[in-house]
Each structure stands twice: as C-alpha cells, then as structure tokens.
Amino acid sequence: MSIVLACDLGGTSFRAALVDDTGAIRAQHAIAGPVSRDARSGGSEIEPEAWWALLVEACAGLASEAPALFDAVEAIAICGVTRTQIFLHRDGSSLRPAMTWKDTRADALAARLREKLDPAHPESAAVNAFHPLARLAWLREQEPEVFGRLACLLEPKDYLNFRLTGRRASDPVSLARLLAAASPHGSHDLLAAAGIPVTILPEMLEPWEQVAPVQPGLPAPLDRLAGKPVFCASNDTWAAVVGLGAMRDGFAYNISGTTEVLGVVGREPARAEGLLTVDWRGLFQLGGPSQTGADTVSWLLALLGHDGAAVGQEIDALLSGSRQPQPLLFLPYLQGERVPYWDPSLRGALVGLNRRHGPTDLAFAVLEGVACLNRVVLERAEAALGSAASEIRFGGGAAANPVWSQIKADLCGRPVVVAASKEPGLLGAAIIAFAGHGRFGSLAEAQQALVTVARRFEPDPARKPAYDALFALFRRAEMALAPISRDLVVAAQDGEPLAGLARHASAAADLHAD
C-alpha cells in the first residue's frame, strides 16, 4: 500500500489528507482558513505566513491521528486557490500581504491599462481587475517601493511548495494568464508594455513534475517528511477536475465550494466571450471561476437567522417546504462577477417578490439562480466548441445536495454526475502525487483507477418547458438590472449622495440605543 499527503488550500479552509493508492482517504484534517483583510477600496489581503501555519497545523493533526501512516508518506502534492498573488523579495520573504481572488482595487487601472495595451494581443481584452497583470500594474503605481524590491510572483500553493523545498516554481495552468501576457505577439508582450519585468516569473513545471524533496530542518511534524518528493500540482480547479474524473475530452465539470467553477474540456483551444480558454496540458478548458456558488446558500441562511452550523440540514429543511405558484428570480452576483461578465460592480437581486413568498421560495430561487449562471457559461462554451458536453461532473460541498444536483441537470439539460469522493481537490492532488511518483503510468491512468461515480442525475423532460421559460426571464433580468447595479456602486462611493445613507442608518441606530 502506498500513501501520499494531499492538501487543498481553499478559499475558506485548508484540508490535508493521507490517501492510499485505491483513492481512499485514510486520515483527514481540516482547518478554517485565514479571514481576508478587506479594505473599503475593494482590497482583500491575507498574510502568506498564515497559509504556512495552516499547513504545519494540519500536518500536526494528521501526525497525531495516524502517526504510522504519516511516517509512511511517499510523496506530497498541494493544490490551491488561484488568482491570488504572493510577492517575494529575493531572500524569499514576503514583501506585503497577498492580494486574493476577491481583490478589485485594480479595476479602474485595468481599464486605463487596456487602452495602452496592443489591442491585437490576444490577452489584452482579458485584462481586468482580477488579472495578475492589472494587479502588478496596481502595485507598481500604488506601492512603488514594494514593486521595486519584487523578485518573484507565486500563487499560494507555490508558496507552500517553496517553503517546503526552497525552490520557487509554478505550473503553466495556474499562471496561464500571466504567461499569456508575457508571450510576444508581433514584436510586443504585455508585461513589457506595462513595465513589468519578466524575471518575476518563477520556473515552470508540469503539474505532475517534482519541485524538489522536502528540505531538512522544518518545524515538526514536517521534519518527518524530509527527503520526500513534492510535486508541483496546480490550482484547486484543475486538481478537482482530475479528482472528478472530468479531465477528458467532451466532459463538463462544475465545482461548487465557496465559489462556483464551470467549464467544458475539449481538444481545441476554442474561445468564447467572457470565458477563459486555458491550456490544460494536452486538453483545453473553456469556462472558469465565478464569485458565487455555495457561498450564496450561507448568505441566505444567515439572512434568515440560521447559525450555519449545519448548512446541509438547514438548506434541506428549507427545500422541504411548499413553493408558491409564482417562482422568484435570483441574480447571484453578491460579490460582483468573474466568468462570464468580469464586472466587479454587478450586484445580486431578488426579482418578483410577493407577500406570500417565504423561506422555501427564497431557497429554491438561490439554487436556481446559480444554476442559471451555470447554463450561461455552459451554452457559451458548447457553442464555441461546436458540440454538447456528454455530462457534467459535479463536485464540492454543494454536490452533497441531491435537489441542487437535479436542478442543475434540469436547467442545463445535461446529466449531472456526482463522484464518490466528497473531496475531489484532495483526490486530484493525490492522483498528481501518485502519477508523478510512478505508482501509475500516467495522469489518465491514475484518474481511471481512482475515480468512481456515486450518483447520476438525468434531466427531467417534464421540467424543461418551465425551466427554459425561467432561464429566459433570468437573462432579461440580468440585462435590465446590470446598469442599475453599476450606478448604485458608483453612487455609494465616498462623496456621492447615496453614501450618506449608511451614515444616516448609523445615526438612527445610535438614537435607538439611547
């Protein structure tokens, strides 16, 4: 029996597991992730050292729970959140907090930057507030002293690999957008145009390639892993798609954790408006991450006064009630949106409320609203590829809810298949480690051997007319309300009239307190 250490650095938690060569998780330890420090200007930051502390703590939990298995670890692989930049000095220290996937401070600068970039470069149109090029340009403009000392840019899992091995490396999937910007088009590349030195890029390795062995002298219990190979791995989406068994031509995937990710995998680098086309090392994904997902359920439960201690049971209780004949529409853009709109000023909305609507109606509206967004992405991807996806592999916390799985199948019109593993990111990282270490002949072979299916949800033809009509109304509501969302965001900035409402509310609260 072979054992690997697999880790998944998520948006709100850090999970580590000891996984055997049948794909079974033999021991697991999960810790809540660090809370980002949010600035009023749209900033979202986390100290990289906090992620390192989580790795040490999670491994300590595993070593305590299963000491013999921990000592039997043969290889390590870590996947993690992307669109998050860690800025390193030449001595390896962090220059400032990491800018997380939620950070929108570069929005205005990205618009100015696009006007200066070569419009013929294929990456120019993709530069937005979430693009690493815009983040780097923001750092250059707003924090020139920090930028002047910048030696290397890493993503969170790369930073953990660096702390484990001493080698600075990443993979072409995680840094695809920055590599695309650095690729010359004609006689220009976007990094040079933005004044960003290409020397900040780390070495590039394939996800299944070894970074280096764990170095000696690390804090306990990591010292017990000294000499074990660490594999580069990739971002959490790529790893989870492997863990779902969806890294195959013609498959779609949907990962619903804190945020929602949906894409279609194909053999050709097709392009569609608002979707990311990323080289997945022999295959291409068309789709990408949104700002919404299962987090909308947590928001709803908090709004309704639930404590969120048992999210699954609480949402099941809401869904078990009766619905009103008139459905609600929910636009799920509570934090702006990435794919497919790339607009941080989009906002959520409930449309069609009447006096008889209750918690059950709200719950169904939230699930259906996210599924409608899934369909927008799926339709764009399939149109660009010229063929329909054979099925959608569904994973993440939301995949445990059969009602949501069926809603997604009905609204998208595709079978939704839930894998047996409840932790596709961890399983995907384990598959990477096993393939890289030689336990299987290839990533495809490891995927075939270790991924099993738990349940399949077929689209219900009887629901198709109603959901097609709901989706058409959803699209109309999106187009009608997007300008209002943007106006509200702009008007609420400091110095604008609507910004005073918050101050009036605070004053009213003080009066009630008196």
TrEMBL record:
Gene3D superfamilies named in the record: 3.30.420.40
One example GO MF annotation: kinase activity
Asked whether the UniProt record includes Transferase among its keywords, one would answer: yes
The name on file for this protein is: FGGY-family carbohydrate kinase
Q: Which family does it belong to?
A: Belongs to the FGGY kinase family.
Source organism of the structure: Bosea eneae
Domain spans labelled Carbohydrate kinase FGGY N-terminal: 4-243
Q: Where is the Carbohydrate kinase FGGY C-terminal domain?
A: 252-435
Keywords attached to this Swiss-Prot or TrEMBL record, sorted alphabetically, are: Kinase, Transferase
